[in-house]
Fold this protein.
Amino acid sequence: MNFNEAAAVLAAAGIDEPRREARILERNAADAATFAKYIERRAAREPVAYILGRKEFWSLEFEVSPAVLIPRPESETLVETALKYFKEKPPRTILDLGTGSACLLIALLSEWRSATGLGLDISPQAIEIARRNAARHLQGARAVFRVNDWAQGLGERFDLIVSNPPYITARELLSLDRDVIGFEPKGALDGGEDGLDPLRRIAADLRTVMQPEGLAVIELGIDQAASASRILVNSGLEVLHIAKDLGGRDRAIVARVPHRTLA
């Protein structure tokens, strides 16, 4: 199969940029047989990141598999927002809830060389990938990973808490692209009826795992800022800011424990 034939196969499968994706797969294939297999998998709508087993985030390369959500550029908003709030005094400890590939935690540790981090995920398979990514980027000594159900049962407090929880609503799940719903882990996508069930779980424990001067930076879905703010406020937190991504969409919510009611 030559390049033009491959691009035609992808176009027939409904791939938006068939020539660009065919070129990426061709460049990464060891031989013609591998290239043909890659095209077959992509024509079945398997994401390129899973075919190649890696994805770039924050200019770092991360191992990915169907056990973890594929890192997306809009999630870099969380990293940018955290860097802004801790510009004067970097955090010493970071908690990443639902760490997946650990792209958020490792990106932050790459910026703050004296910080340490804990990544939690309910999936043992995700935790193994997170550990390998930490070792790849020489963060193994500063990043610890454990299987855990959000922050339940933690006896530690952190300066910064980040999370990209599932936030897709039940209705939205029905209309997701085949590339997403057919391959990415449903548990990393499904946010319940209104998309905010995981945030409710997280919010219930934030005050017990956040340092007095700490912050939480949590990713949001479309049109969730107002509802997410109410959930956090009702859990005893103060919302400081809604950060927008490069597309102008509300993407991250920043919260802290009100100073007058520190736990």
